[in-house]
Amino acid sequence: MKIDAAMRENINGHRASIENMVREPMRRLTDMCIPVWRDRTLLDGVLLAGFHTIPHCKFVYAMAPNSVQISSNVAHHGLIESDFRRDRSQRPYMLAMQPGDTFRLSESYISIRERRPSITAVHAIVNQGRLIGFLGADFDLRSLPFSAPLYEEPKTWRQLKGDPSIRGGLFQQTRTESLVDQNIETVTAVMTELFVDRGLFHGKIHFASSRATVWFYDDPYRYRILGIEALTDPDICMAFPRRDYPEEASTPIGYVRETLQVFRELRLMDDTLYLRAGSLNVINNMVGLTFSCDGSHYMSVDEFLDKDVAFWIGEAGSNDGSACA
Length: 325
Known about the structure:
Layout: H1 5-33, H2 40-50, E1 59-63, E2 73-75, E3 78-80, H3 92-95, E4 103-105, E5 109-110, E6 117-127, E7 130-140, E8 158-160, H4 164-168, H5 179-182, H6 184-197, E9 200-206, E10 211-216, E11 219-227, H7 228-231, H8 253-268, E12 275-281, E13 286-291, E14 296-300, H9 301-305, H10 309-314
Antiparallel strand pairs: 1-7, 2-3, 4-6, 5-6, 6-7, 8-14, 9-10, 9-12, 10-11, 12-13, 13-14
């Protein structure tokens, strides 16, 4: 699945800030390299002296026009001479350089040595109008400051197709009644109580395996697993403190029970096409659905409640509006 437009915009903003941070220091260092370009020892010395002028840099090095390294790697701890004459022509940052490019910040890639997400800035070195080589600067993404706003999940409907083997065998399977199915009234009531009065903000009901995974507002970094014994025993509600419905919730409190009831309807709507798992997050007002064909859907609660059961089953296999299309 492609990165959506909002996330790409976020990434591009972060990349722009990196470019602004390193472009001018690299230009100044390329000017310093020109007088010593043909002397490896002097070139290493210039790179070593200028290394700390490039913020957050992990390695800096010089390359000939054919992308073969003509200097040592320069790092925080000094010179790494073993990289002299390393051919970088097939690395993504050099493949991305186009004729006439003065500066380019690569897309992120996985580094060879540490297998870490990394990024490289490349600056052309031009002397009297002639390209004589390139200056490369590598960055570990962990070391770069994060300047872009935190990415927010879009609220538009997203549909993902799952395992083709499951999808292909859809009409050879039938729903087997689970313990949640047999006790679905109680399960719905217990989950509603947890959401509305016990601080549950994200919960996923796994109908086929008769369990739920739950995240609570006051302990959001740990999830809990509620088995069928817990989901069918209203006493479980007393295991969690009474808490007002979160003010930050985007889902109106009255929609919680309604959403869970629609989950129930989708679970029981057909013996072939049915809901395997359904999740609700009241903070970002999103539901997630996984059907028997292994197709998954993510959408806002409002959009979900606007669709009736006939929408999901009536067009099965023939239209993008169905659960499995």
